[in-house]
Amino acid sequence: MVKKKCEVEETIKCPECGCTTLERDTVRGEMVCPQCGIVVEEGLIDQGPEWRAFDSEQQDKRARTGAPTTYTIHDKGLSTIIGWKNKDSYGKSIPTRNRAQLYRLRKWQRRIRISNAAERNTAFALNELDRMSSAMGLPRKIRECAAMLYRHAVEKNLIRGRSIEGVAAAVLYAACRQCDVPRTLDEIATAARVERKEIGRTYRFISRELGLKLMPTTPSDYITRFASELKLSPAVQEETKRILKLAADKELTSGRGPTGVAAAAVYIAAINKNERRTQREVADVAGVTEVTIRNRYKELAEKLGLPIEI
Fold first, then answer.
1. pTM of the predicted model over 0.70
2. What is the 3-state secondary structure (H, E, C) of 232-255?
3. Which of 3, 142, 144, 271 is an S-S bond match for 138, by CB 3.0 to 4.6 Å?
């Protein structure tokens, strides 16, 4: 069947000059006569070879695309990488006499990936962002957002005179707030090994220069993470949301740290739903002191009239 199909295609002639050697334009999907330039056929579909794979080896050989672009790599993942295996594109082993040349190619390829100081700076910062994100268990979208913010800061020359670690920690903090996955400055400082004051100062500078419009974090933003780390049920989360809504209506959350209020609400809700957690456990998860939780839950219980047994 395939042979007949090819024979039929070869016998197609140009209706103007009768030329039989027609050229197929794969970009436009047309069949064109090379002599008179007339388009004989259009809208052709490139059937291509058989791409179906039955195992991982066939899938690797027949893959037509590479990895997607990403902002977390300094060259966005578009550079060529010479693999460590001494095999060619056909899977055959490279002769021993050519391996010294391959080693030199690998060495120079690694060197030319980073061509100047700006790329070296960006590569180091993106590696630092990836390390901090992994240590804090942050999702992929936050890493991409932080990498994009860092690139914007480099383009506006905001890095000069500041440490790479401090700027990377600041953009990671901003990315967490942009993606509604807030982390406290203390958590960022612990993962970044940079002082909290430096991160806050750099964050304020970058947010002002880049024009970032970030709303203040609220206690409700921390409910899911606190409940998950304390292994509390969804019922406790719903009760916490109800308590925080009542507190917000009576303006009990304004002027107070959101993590402390959220931790106190989670503590009260856990007791009301018979899933009691100690103040020490809640304080360790929230990153606040037991005294803060004690003061906040007493205030909430008193002002909201919550029936609670401590």
1. no
2. CCHHHHHHHHHHHHHHHHCCCCCC
3. 142
Q: 122 is in which domain, residue-wise?
A: 117-210
Give per-residue pLDDT as tens, 155-191.
898 988 888 999 999 999 999 988 888 888 888 998 8
Amino acid identity for residue 157 in this structure: N
- Measured between alpha carbons, how far is 18 from 35 in angstroms, rounded to an integer? 10
Q: For residue 111, tell me if it sits in a domain.
A: no
CB 168 within 8 A of CB 193: no
For the chain, what is the domain count?
3
Output the six-digit token pair for 188.
Answer: 């960022």
108 found inside a domain:
no
Q: How far apart are CA 285 and CA 252, in angstroms?
A: 22
Among 162, 180, 210, the domain-final residue is 210
Block residue for tokens 């700027």:
167
**What does DSSP say about strands 39-42 and 30-32: parallel, antiparallel, or unpaired?**
antiparallel
- In a domain, residue 300? The reply is yes
The one-character DSSP state at 270 is: H
Residue 21 within a domain: yes
Question: Cα–chain-centroid distance for residue 110?
Answer: 25
Instruction: Assign residue 298 the CATH number of its domain.
Output: 1.10.472.10
